[in-house]
Design goal:
By secondary structure, the protein is of the alpha+beta class. The protein folds into three domains: 2-43 and 273-361, no CATH class; 52-262, no CATH class; 367-481, GMP Synthetase, Chain A, domain 3. The protein is 25% helix and 31% strand. The chain is built from eleven helices and 20 strands. Strands 4, 5, 6, 7, 8, 9, 10, 11, 14 and 15 form a ten-stranded mixed β-sheet that branches. Strands 16, 17, 18, 19 and 20 form a five-stranded antiparallel β-sheet that branches. Strand 1 and strand 2 form a beta hairpin. Helix 1 packs antiparallel against helix 4 (251-262) and helix 8 runs antiparallel to helix 10 (463-470). The two termini are 34 Å apart.
Amino acid sequence: MAAAAVARHCLARFTDSETTKCTLSYFHHTSSRQSIQVFYNKYQVCTLSMNGCQGDSKFPIGTIETRTLGAVPSPAVAMERLNLAIGELKSNLPPCSSGIIRLQVPIQQQIEAIEWLHAQDEILPRCFFSGRRGRANASNLLIDTINGNGYTSFGQNLVSVAGVGSAVFFRQLHPFSYDDWKSIKRFLSSKCPLIRAYGAIRFDARANISSEWKAFGSFYFMVPQVEFDELEESSMLAIMVAWDDALSWTWDEAIDSLEATMQRVASIVVKLRKESSKEFILSNNHIPNKTHWDLAVKRALEIINTSNSPLIKVVLARSSKVLTATNIDPISWLACLQVEGENGYQFCLQPPNGPAFIGNTPEQLFHRKWLSISSEAMAGTRARGGSTTLDLEIEHDLLSSPKDHLEFTIVRESIQNKLESVCERVAVEPKKTVRKLRRIQHLFSQLAGNLKTEDDENCLTEECLLDQLVGLEEEKVSLLLV
């Protein structure tokens, strides 16, 4: 059985049962963000790893290394090279009591990371991230691929990343804090830019966690044990081993866990069909129903139109539970979203014994490198036109609409005000333009600034910035609408 949801996200979940029916729950919102949550309770097994949040972030780990082996023609040969390298690691105990080591093998052909992930065993924890490919001005995964031993991996940009297993993960039930951020940074180094932690943070960590999200906690990040990197004209397969005696996760245990994961990794990658399939819908249930939805909209408008109202914009959403006759593969679904969202980010995150959370969004909450930070404002929505002329007419209507201008200005100014509280100067360029996606278009603006000091990065992990960028005074709005 499967359940799903789409909301400003689309959220979906799958649970296996004796029947072949599939239940999908969707949260509907006018934004183009989509996310889907998928459960595999029957097949999930617990894989051992260490929780990096339980370590002392004040003490750096002993070593962070990247080692590059010779380039090979295929993933199968890369697997052979890495398995031999693991054998060599076993016979050479490192002198440090903690550390993280990445071994990587360049592959002389481009293979899509999502196709590699689709070929892997679904019982393993997994992650996937792909940047916005449709933008000609830059790639959102641009990195310096010179690693710790001075080897340049073909000098190409990273396109997508897929990973299985977790060398180290980071998860807590309390809201994400600066100490948690330091725990993650403890395992990262600018000298090894491809050692990365992929994950997600709850928008509202104060709310109760529903059952489908419990495996994620208030936040969940993972450094994969086995990672596949899709580059512009080639690929790379890598393994990572992390250990910390202080966390009761020794070198030997880390190597044993890596070997167990490698035994489940497939080296044969098959081309994935990125076509949406037509599913037979058995039933459809909206929560709230149309009557209660209309009442919620009416109530929100009444509050907004009241003189001296504290509300100027309210975002409402609903869920829809759809029962389909057959099951749906989450990675195949994500591949379809990748086609739909060429100008967006696609992601997948699945913790041990938990659901796979996948999504597609054109929005970047914020991006930070050193003291530079940037964000984006996006609001107002129109469909794309069937012809160039009609598309331009719709674009003009969106740009000239007073209602959409007000909605967009609220979002842009709220982000700008918050960035100005931690930055020396904030640039907004352009003030307002249109970003066109495959099926819809939005009002859009970019904001960038420089943090006053490195201490201001604390604000990036505390509620102050995240709440401001995600939503305006959510708790007060909820109280007013009750």
